[in-house]
Amino acid sequence: MKRFWAMVQNEVVKIIKKKRFYIVLLILAILVPIFSYAQMRQSLERQESYGSDWRLEVQQAITDNQNSLSSDRVPQEWKVYRQIYIQQMQYYLDHDVNPNEPGGVTFTREFINNSATLFIPLMILTIASDLVSSERTGGTIKMLLTRPVRRWKVLLSKLTALLMFVSLIVVSAYLVCYLISGVFFGYSGWSIPIFTGFVLNGSDVDLTYVQATPQWQYLLIQAGLVWFVGIVVALLAFMVSVLIRSTAASIVVMMATLISGSILVNMASSWTSAKYLFMVNLGLTDYLAGNPAPIDGMTLGFSIAVLAAWGAVSIFVSFFVFIKRDVLT
Amino acid sequence: MNSWKWIWRTTAIFSVIAALLLMIGFGYGIRKLMFPTPSLVSAESVSPAPLTERAPSTEEDRDRIVAIGDSLAKGTGDLTGQGFARRSAALLEQDGNRDVQFLNNLGINGMTTTELLEELKQPGVRYVLKEANLILLSIGANDLFQGGAALQTSGGSPNTATWNKVLPEAANRLGQVLDELREINPSARIVYIGLYNPFGDIPSLRQEANQGVTTWNTTIAARLLTDDQMFFTPTFDLFQRDPVAYLSSDHFHPNSAGYERIAERIVQALR
Fold first, then answer.
1. In this predicted structure, what is the pLDDT of residue B148?
2. Given CA atoms A59, A63, A64, A69 in this order, what sign does their dihedral have?
3. Domain B62-270, CATH 3.40.630.30 — does that match?
C-alpha cells in the first residue's frame, strides 16, 4: 500500500513538473478578468437605460420574451424555453428577489454555469489527455512497466493522480473566478436567495417544489455537479489516452466529442436516442438552474446514470487494454 | 528532493479536502434535486415585502414614461424599433425643460383589451406602472380588426353588423382598463392613442371602417374626459389622406414616418 502511494506521488510530481496545472491556472487567470470586464461594461450600459432598478429590467425581459412567443418565426423549442424563462422571472419578480444581484458570487455562479460543459472539461483534458500516451511518445513506458509492479497498479496510480487534479481544477476554477471577479463586483452575495426546484412539465413550470436556496449552497451543489461531469470526462480522456498512441490525436479526439456535444444539444431535440450519448448529458448544472433538458425524457437521474455508465465502461476498457497490450511494438 | 515531498503533501491534502467538499456538494445536490419536498413557505419567507406592497418612488422632477398595450405601443413596423413611445420621449427630451427617463415598453404584439386586463394583474407590470408618471396607452385595434386578419381573410372584413356588436364590449373593457390604471397609479398622466383607419386605401373597406373607427374614437374620448389627467391623442387624420405613405409594408402598422407623426401629436398635448 505504501508503495502504491509512492507511485501516486511520482505521478503527481510528474504532472506538476510538466506544468500542466499551472497552465490551467494561468488560462483562468487570464480569461476571468476579460469576462469580468465585459460583464461590467454590460451592466454599466444596462444601468444607463434602466437606472438602478432591476425590477424594471426584469419586467422588460419578461415582456420582450412574451413578444417573441407570438412570432411565427421562432421555433417551437425556443418558445418552450422562453415560456419557462418568463415564468421563472415572474416568480423572482413576484417575490421581489433580484435574479442577477451583481457581485463576485453571482458572477462566479454564472461563469461556472456557462463553462460547465465545455470550458472546465477542456481544462481537465489538459492534464488527462497525455497521461498515458506521453509515456509512449517519450518511450518511458518501457521503464515504467519493467519494474516489478503489476500493470494495473501502474495505471491505477495514474488514475488516482488524475482524479486528484480534477478536484483541484474544479475548486481552483471557483477560487480564481471569485477572487478576480470580486475586484470588479465586490466579494459579497453569499446569502442571496436563488430559487431552485422548478419542475418542468412541457412548457409549464410547477412551482410547488420551489425553494429559496442561499447562493453559497447553490454554488456548493453546482460545484458537486461540475465535479461529477469532470470525473467522467477525465475517465473518458484517460481511456482515449490509453487507446491512442499520439498525445495530439487523443486531445483532438476528446475535444471533437466535447464540441460535438455542445452542437448536438442545440439540434438533437427530435433525435431522442441521442440522449444516451455522454456529451449531451454534460449539462448537469442546467437541471439545477431549472433550464429545460435538451431532449425529452432527460432528467438529472438519467444524465447521472448515463455519465456513470460511460465512466465505468471507460475504466474497464482502459485497464483491459493496458494490461493486455504488448508495449514492445 | 525535499521540496518535492512538500509539494506532494500539499497537493494531496488540498485535493483530498477539495474532493470531500465536492462530494458533499454532489450528494446534497442529488438529495435536493431528485427528492424535492414541496415547501413554498420557505420561498415566501425570503422576501420581506412582496412586490405589490412596495411604495412608488416620488421624485417628481422628471418625466418617467411607460408605454403599454398592443403592437403600436411596442413599435411594430418602425424599422428603427423606437415606435411612438421612444420617439415621444426623445421629443420631450429635445424640449429640454425636464429630465426624461423612458422606463419600460410593455407593448405586446396582438394584445387585446381582454389580455390587457389580465396583464394588469401582474405584480411586475403594476410595479412598473406605479413608477411612471406618464403612461402611453395604445389598445383596441386588435379587438376591432382582429390583428389585421380581417384584411387577409376575405370573409372576415369588418362590417357594420360586427362593429355594432364588438365595439361596445371592447369600449366597456377599455373603460375597465382605465379604471384599473387609475387605481394602480392615482396621479400619472395617461395618454390614449386614438385609432386610425388602416384600410383607408381599400375602397371596399374604407367607408365602413371609417365609420367604426370614428365611433370608437368618440366613445373613448368621452370616457377619457371624465379624468383631468387623461388625454386623447387623435391619429385618424394623420392616416386619412395618404395611408400608404405612413403605413409599413404590412398595411396595418405605421412606418417610421407614421410613428414620428403620432409622437409629435402626443408631445404637443403634453407641452
1. 47
2. positive
3. no
